[in-house]
Amino acid sequence: MERGHGMNSNSKIIELAQKIIKEAGGTTAAPEPTPQPSYVVIADMAELKAAVADGEADIRLASNEWPSLVLDQMPTKSPVYIAPLDGEHVFPPISVRRSNSLTFDGFKLVRPEGSDARSILGLGADATDIKLLNLRGYASSELLDDPKAYADWTQAEWLARKVGGVDSRSPGLVVEDCTMYGTYMSFSMTGKASQSRRNRAIGVPGDGFRLICDYGLSEDDLVEDMFQINGNHADVLQSWSIGEDGRPGTGVRRGLTVRRLTARQWTLGDDKAANPLRAHPQGIGLFDGMFEDLLIEDCDLDVGAYHGISVYGGINAVLLRNKVWDHFRMEANGKYPWIRVGNHKNGTPSTGSVIVGNQAQTITIFDETAKVSGNVKLNA
After folding, report:
1. Of the candidates 187, 174, 73, 181, which has an alpha carbon nearest to the alpha carbon of residue 129?
2. Cα torsion for 72, 199, 252, 284, to the nearest 10°?
3. CA angle at residue 52 from 49 to 55, to 5 degrees?
4. How far apart are CA 75 and CA 363, in angstroms?
5. pLDDT-based confidence at residue 149 (cuts at 50, 70, 90)
6. 97, 57, 91: which is closest to 74 by C-alpha?
7. CA atoms of 377 and 262, how far apart (whole Å)
């Protein structure tokens, strides 16, 4: 463990300067000393655990070989900030369990070839008060030099590199300004009140975002370039309820908010659109309600399947000023992608819906109590 150092003042030079000024009849205050950096530099996991136990609040990880970054049983008494000494150094995936009050900032992460890590960053339900800031995660080292090299991957290459991005069960998680490249289920958050802001899922062979939690938030997130590599249908964002029996669609998902989510199903050019792995993604798929106090507003979703925004079982669901469209099918007689608020799959009707100022090829509301106004059929 090494304390970071700044430049030390030269006392003899300071004394000489004070003497010259005094002889000239002037006065001067002693110059302020250059502040010392407050962080400690850590070289291995044993040092990291010791530093956290000692109450260090600001930690930098040295740019050496890190076989793993598994933070287990690292309880803290106050928040701890952890960052790389060099933001371009490549670190292995991070895993956090039975730990609290940790902020990770500025890491560049990749799963090494041959690793069995399930995600770039995994957080257990017993990891609490965690923040992830400005992280970059890569499904393969091939993407480090060219983050869009995935454009030419075969299905076998995608499957060999299949790894999750942020996979979290941590309650109260905050994820901001992070980017995942080529990751399957790029941001999956199931801990209550998880918050995702300004994150980017780039080159997605699964779902961009999963917010399977009460009071979850997605704000200013982005998904682009989606691929179909297996039987899971690609979605920009998904959520569902889970009942007391543990089954999807048998409970109530409360307080989900999605603001200004942007999706671009394909940014690699129309000349490459014949790629057999190009997905026809769904937008916001909420298929297993009920969804109570749902808010979806100001989203711009370029998607290729029926479901632009679909809510199957809403209680006071509000959809405001959203646009769903398909870059590859803009004709006026198209029927989808659509915006739809309907019954739960078990037949329970939606109630209290507010659907205002949206744009889609088709907007269908199965809610006799709904307030509907200002919606526009695209290309009509």
Report:
1. 174
2. -140
3. 150
4. 50
5. very high
6. 97
7. 20
Calpha distance 107→89 (Å, rounded):
8
Cis peptide upstream of residue 330 (ω within 30 degrees of 0): no
Per the model's pLDDT, the better-predicted residue between 255 and 114 turns out to be 255
Residues 6+ apart with CB under 8 A from 359: 322, 323, 324, 325, 375, 376, 377, 378
Over the stretch 310-359, which tens digit does the pLDDT of each residue have? Answer: 999 999 999 999 999 999 887 656 678 999 999 999 999 999 999 999 99
CA distance 370 to 99: 45
Q: Check pLDDT > 70 for residue 113.
A: yes
Q: What sign results for the dihedral spanned by CA atoms 331, 333, 335, 341? A: positive
- Least Cα distance to 84 among 110, 104, 111, 56 occurs for 104
Q: What tokens appear for 240 in the block?
A: 């569902």
Structure tokens belonging to residue 129: 């008060």
Distance of alpha carbon 168 from alpha carbon 312, whole angstroms = 25
The two beta strands, 127-133 and 136-138, are: unpaired
Task: Tell me the three state secondary structure of residue 121.
Answer: strand
Q: Give the C-alpha separation, 156 to 150, whole Å.
A: 12
Coil, helix or strand at residue 16: helix
pLDDT at 16: 63
Tell me what pLDDT residue 375 has: 96
Q: How far apart are CA 103 and CA 173, in angstroms?
A: 10
Rounded-to-integer distance, Cα 33 and Cα 30, Å? 9
- Give the pLDDT score at 22: 63
Task: Please choose, from the candidates 217, 230, 221, 175, the residue with its C-alpha nearest in 3D space to the C-alpha of residue 202.
Answer: 221
Q: Which two tokens stand for residue 239?
A: 């959520």
How far, in Å, CA of 355 to CA of 220, rounded? 21
pTM of the model: 0.89
**Distance from CA of residue 266 to its chain's centroid?**
19
